[in-house]
Amino acid sequence: MTYLEHSSEPDAQSRAYELWLQMPQPKAKILPGTSVSVHVDMVAAGLSTIQGYQLPMTVLEAGVEPQQFFVWKHEDGVAMKTPVRVDQVNSFGVIVDSGVAQGDVLISSSLRKLRDGEAVALMENNK
User: Which stretches in the chain have pLDDT values below 50?
Assistant: First the structure.
């Protein structure tokens, strides 16, 4: 895909910016209204200077010290408490710039009951 343009003002209702991209038509026709997921590196595109991962608030646990936060990772069948640094809080959750990496599996429920190194099983969300 190639970038065409983006809106300079957020939409009044969604508070999101619009972005127009272009790509060649694949062999199988794409019909109007077809859903698609597009991942854009906003820093590489020059649209943001914030680098990190957008996480929902439900995976974040506050520490005892101010500005101390943790997430629980699922690694090899156990829960691992991992410190993270919160860079920004927004309407979608938080952006963390350290402590998580692409592909990490984060635990989002019953955080207060978890213990570091405790065996946990994952449940699939079949919606």
Answer: none
Would you give the DSSP letter of residue 81? E
The model's pTM: 0.58
Exposed (0-12), middle (13-18) or buried (19+): which is 71, by Cβ within 10 Å? Answer: buried
The one-letter code for the residue type at 116 is D
CA-CA distances (angstroms) from residue 115 to 2, 38, 47? 46, 36, 39
**Residue pLDDT, tens place only, 5-26:** 888 888 888 888 888 888 888 8
- Radius of gyration (C-alpha) of the chain in whole angstroms: 19
Long-range (24+ apart) CB contacts under 8 A made by 48-52 are 50/87, 50/88, 50/95, 50/97, 51/97, 52/87, 52/88, 52/95, 52/96, 52/97, 52/98
